[in-house]
Amino acid sequence: MSRWLCAIEGCLADFEDVESVLAHQRDEHESHTCKVCNEPVPAGFFAIKHAFADHTRAEYVRHYEANSDAIRWRERITRSVESALDSEDGSTAD
User: Fold this and answer.
1) pTM of the full predicted structure?
2) Does the residue 93 lie in any domain?
3) Domain range for residue 34?
4) Which element (helix H / strand E) includes 23?
5) In this structure, are residues 42 and 25 in contact, taking their beta carbons and an 8 Å threshold?
6) Quick check: is 94 in a domain?
């Protein structure tokens, strides 16, 4: 079974399941202030999810000085986490 790594600022704490790494990110790391809207959100996955759900990719690129590789990497993380959550609760992605 694969492990989940936190990877926030080089944390590299590892966990057996996705829920544990998300709880760790929420509880053990300082919140992140979104550079687009200045809203505080939990760091890691939650910050990525916020940026891509609440803002356009263009806003993300502009405010975070990101490129297409950064977008693709974060989209991959989002898909992986959501897929793992879906499979752990027995549902399937749309």
Assistant:
1) 0.85
2) no
3) 4-88
4) helix 18-28
5) yes
6) no
| Structure-token match 């890691």, residue found | 44
Tokens of 67: 């490129």
d(CA 87, CA 94): 12
Q: Per this entry, what is the length of the chain?
A: 94
Number of domains in the chain: 1
pLDDT in 10s for each residue of the chain, 94 residues:
579 999 999 899 999 999 999 999 999 999 999 999 999 999 999 999 999 999 999 999 999 999 999 999 999 999 999 999 998 776 444 4
CA-to-CA distance for 33 and 61, rounded, in angstroms? 16
> Could you tell me which of 42, 44, 40, 48 has the C-alpha nearest to residue 15?
44
